[in-house]
Design a protein that fits this description.
It is built from ten helices and nine strands. It has helices spanning about 5-10, 25-35, 50-55, 65-80, 85-90, 125-140, 160-180, 180-190, 240, 245-265, and strands at about 95, 100-105, 110, 120, 150, 195, 205-210, 215-220, 230-235. The strands form two sheets. A five-stranded antiparallel β-sheet has the order 5-9-8-7-6, covered by helices on one side. The chain is globular, with a radius of gyration of 20 Å.
Length: about 270
Amino acid sequence: MTQIKNPLELYKLLKKSNCRECLLPSCMAFAVAVIQGQKQLADCPYVDQETLRALGGEVARRGSREDEQQQLLARLRQQAGQLDFPAAAARLGARLRDGRLGINCLGKDFWIDPAGGIWSECHKIPWVEIPLLNYVIGSKGRKLSGEWLSFGELAGAGEWSRFFAHRCESAMGQLADAHPELIFEILHLFGAQPAAGKTDADQALVIFPLPGLPMLINYWAPEDHFASKLNILFDRTATDNINIESIYLLGRGLVEMFRALIVRHSRDGKLF
């Protein structure tokens, strides 16, 4: 069998039902994830054993994405290890303890040691580690302005805006539609607080993935002939404290975390 090298070839072999049992929004997204090495073909419950055996090692995986992440983490750890920790703590308003720099992420403490290693009771994953290190290295420590902007209005958003709208805002909106109570309970568990001031949103919560990066999540439930809506806003200072790629990565990471928690804690164990 000819080696499958792109998602379209793999997509033709799938059920194309967009059942989302793989925890991804569509069969095409699943095909892309398999090619990128983020998912196994067997993660699709509708791929039969005969097809799995026939394909065997014929799916060409781009191992580069994970490799690139690990290479980036190695560079960031090296840069973080070269910081003057007392000066960094003063710049970030962070804590120092036993020679480690402490940063609160989603209500949980993460500690960076002089070698750039990250220590925490929480499970460490790239969507947390990469933004965390970028924040520690590059944040200017700007005070929050209180002015909220959409992702597309942030400096340097550019082409990232389209991806953020689809993979973060739309994806989170689908979860809120399907599990309106559970998803906001999860947000509260990670320190979300009601937004200050007046709003016409049914839910308006502020969550801090990083100390200098609040996210305002607004959700309007469907009503009569109006569809639901969810948007995510950021303080004007966001890109002074972290780069745009890391903001996008945090948004994607939150969606994936919510999906996993909903499957674990929903009554029927399903996303939709």
